[in-house]
Design goal:
Helix 10 runs parallel beside helix 12 and helix 11 packs antiparallel against helix 12. The longest helix has 37 residues. The chain is built from 17 helices and eight strands. It folds into three domains: 130 residues, Fumarase C, Chain B, domain 1; 253 residues, Fumarase C, Chain A, domain 2 (Up-down Bundle); 57 residues, Fumarase/aspartase (C-terminal domain) (Ribonucleotide Reductase Protein R1, domain 1, Orthogonal Bundle). The chain is mainly alpha-helical.
């Protein structure tokens, strides 16, 4: 009589201090990860790849260090390293299942990583998933570590690893604005303050200034990142280093530098680095400052491109998609609008980071999961939005020189150039009359014969008004008011 084949088991039983649970048989994660997944069905958001990488870097580095110091048996260390390398190569990413919003400090994610690496290491050594023999997630993968030094170290590493792409995008945008500054440098237009007509400015000056603003934020972000280079790994539970060898921190920093390619330092005070998320909040604040200026800039672009007939229409943004489902031919400033939305989201992220950074108590900030996710995700979306803005908007902007000239000639603010000759009060009267009559300042000055010929051309030289100096004045003949003063 033949035996019937039994289908393979779909679950395995695992045990922890709280009891036992059935874990999917093919899962690399284990019981503690499963408990967290069941406890926190909050957002559906999974850990960001950069954050997973950072924790796995730490686990791999620890295995190497413990092998070097003789604390961990070489074959176990090698299996953990191999498992970590597989994850870093992109394998098993679906096994990191703990929601972003989880138990405080990030213990759930730390254990998720410990269990995945332990189960995979045991497979490499010929064992089965869920047995945790010979490699145990706590005893071996988490050796000389605590969630309390792993997670803040991972936040700092992931932020530093994400930063270069963000900085490249920012510098790319600065270069795009600078190029437009040169291209548009000959175009004189009306300046505007308080959304009212102001003295002339060159379109190139506006765009060059945008570029310098963006570049300065590149420098500020780079400087803020230096605080993050100090790591508290080796501080274990409260920063005192209990269960970690004296040389462990230095060896870990050495290994983490090697695997990440980042410039890192041993923390000068591991207790302080565990208590405070101030360095992370500083980085988030620097990103916030950039976002505030970026949002202002794209708002300016939308205003300058408004129209095409009833707005300013001084620049033309490259069309990237039809702008309306009902109005044929309408083209919207789609890229700047997207950047606005990203900026508002990033400002919300920074508020969350700030509040959470303040919410730590005594030796630990338990809000680290949301702090790390918000900062890293903010850097990603701001960097991506910045790159798209440069490539799909700024590079393709054109100027409407005729429109710039049209508004400029009609600006009553041109009387400012006359003030040194006729006085502020008389110039103000002239501006009011120009607006009321519909005449331009030049036409009114000519009509009233206030200035004539070359003198008129020198004083109302629009290009000269965009540079320092008093229009029409020379060293040999200082400017005087009509009353001789």
């Amino acid at each position: 009589m033949s035996k019937k084949a039994h289908p393979p088991a779909t679950t395995r039983i695992e045990r922890d201090p709280l009891g036992e649970k059935a874990v999917p048989a093919d899962a690399l994660y284990g019981i503690q990860t499963l408990r967290a997944a069941e406890n926190f069905p909050i957002s559906g958001l999974r850990p960001l790849p950069a954050f997973v990488d950072a924790v796995i870097w730490i686990k791999r580095s620890a295995a190497v260090v413990h092998k070097r110091t003789g604390r961990l048996e070489p074959r176990l260390a090698d299996a953990i390293v191999r498992a970590a390398d597989e994850v870093l190569a992109g394998h098993f990413r679906d096994q990191f299942i703990v929601d972003v919003f989880q138990a405080g400090a990030g213990t759930s994610h730390n254990m998720n990583c410990n269990e995945v690496l332990a189960n995979r290491a045991n497979e490499i050594l010929g064992g089965a998933r869920g047995t945790y023999q010979p490699v145990h997630p706590n005893d071996h993968v988490n050796m000389a570590q605590s969630t309390n030094d792993v997670i803040p170290t991972a936040i700092r590493l992931a932020t530093l690893a994400t930063l270069p792409d963000t900085l490249r995008a920012i510098e790319r945008l600065a270069a795009s604005f600078s190029a437009k500054g040169e291209q548009f440098n000959h175009i004189v237009k009306s300046g505007r303050t308080h959304l009212q007509d102001a003295t002339p400015i060159r379109l190139g000056q506006e765009f060059a200034a945008y570029g310098r603003t963006v570049h300065r934020h590149h420098q500020k972000l780079d400087a803020a990142a230096d605080w993050l280079r100090e790591l508290n790994i080796g501080g274990t539970a409260v920063g005192t280093g209990l269960n970690a060898e004296p040389e462990y921190s230095a060896l870990m920093v050495e290994q983490l530098e090697q695997i990440s390619g980042l410039e890192l330092r041993i923390g000068g005070d591991l207790v302080q680095l565990m208590q405070s998320m101030g360095d992370v909040a500083t980085m988030s604040g620097a990103l916030r400052s950039y976002v505030l200026d970026l949002n202002k800039i794209v708002n300016d672009l939308r205003l300058l491109a408004s129209g095409p007939r009833t707005g300013l229409a001084e620049i033309l943004l490259p069309p990237v998609q039809p702008g309306s489902s009902i109005m044929p031919g309408k083209v919207n400033p789609s890229i700047p609008e997207m950047v606005n939305q990203v900026c508002y989201q990033a400002l919300g992220f920074d508020t969350t980071v700030a509040l959470a950074a303040e919410a730590g108590q005594l030796e630990l900030n338990v809000m680290m999961p949301v702090i790390g996710h918000n900062l890293i995700f903010s850097m990603i979306i701001v960097g991506n939005a910045t790159a798209v803005l440069a490539e799909r908007c700024i590079d393709g902007i054109a100027a409407d020189e005729k429109q710039c000239a049209y508004w400029l000639e009609r600006s009553p603010a041109l009387v400012t150039a006359l003030a040194p000759r006729i006085g502020y009060a008389e110039a103000a009267k002239l501006a009011k009359e120009a607006v009321g009559s519909g005449l331009t300042v030049r036409e009114l000055v000519t009509k009233k014969k206030i200035l004539e010929g070359s003198e008129l051309e020198e004083v109302l030289d629009l290009r000269a008004m965009t540079e320092p100096g008093v229009p029409g004045a020379t060293e040999a003949q200082p400017v005087k008011r009509p009353d001789g003063r």
